[in-house]
From TrEMBL:
Residues 10-125 form the Thioredoxin domain. GO terms for cellular component: cytoplasm. Keywords: Signal. It comes from Blastopirellula marina. Residues 1-15 form the signal peptide. The keyword DNA-binding does not apply. One of its GO terms (molecular function) is protein-disulfide reductase activity. The keyword Glycoprotein does not apply. InterPro entries: Thioredoxin-like_sf, Thioredoxin_domain. This is Thioredoxin domain-containing protein.
């Protein structure tokens, strides 16, 4: 009987992480906020950039698109706000950092499409 219990526990220990991983990559897991208006999403994205940075200027249209669509996003100039850049460990720009209640949840380095940044709000990449 002990061998059956040990085998059952081993099976559960193996199967649980596999099932959780598969579930985390399912399409539904990236869509928890489909019915929530952009302005009511939890948290916000901080877009760290600088006026002298060519890559930041390249990423600026994505920032503008999200802002115009009502997504909670804030542009942070690293030269004007070095303390906030230091708080989030910004060592290269552009960076999109998703923050909920002051705590970083995820980030994207470099330029990214609006759809990729929207997935930050939804818990994905």
């Amino acid at each position: 009987m002990q061998k059956v219990i040990v085998a059952f526990v081993a099976l559960i220990c193996f199967a649980a992480p596999v099932l959780l991983t598969v579930a985390s990559y399912s399409h539904e897991s990236f869509q928890p906020h489909d019915d929530v208006p952009p302005r009511d999403l939890p948290g916000k994205v901080l877009f760290f950039s600088a006026s002298w940075c060519p890559a930041c200027r390249h990423a600026d249209p994505t920032y503008q698109e999200l802002r115009n669509a009502g997504y909670p996003i804030r542009k942070v100039d690293v030269d004007s706000n070095p303390s906030l850049a230091q708080k989030y460990g910004i060592s290269s720009i552009p960076q999109f950092v998703y923050v909920v209640n002051g705590h970083e949840k995820n980030r994207i380095s470099g330029s990214a499409s609006a759809s990729r940044i929207k997935r930050l709000y939804q818990g994905g990449w």
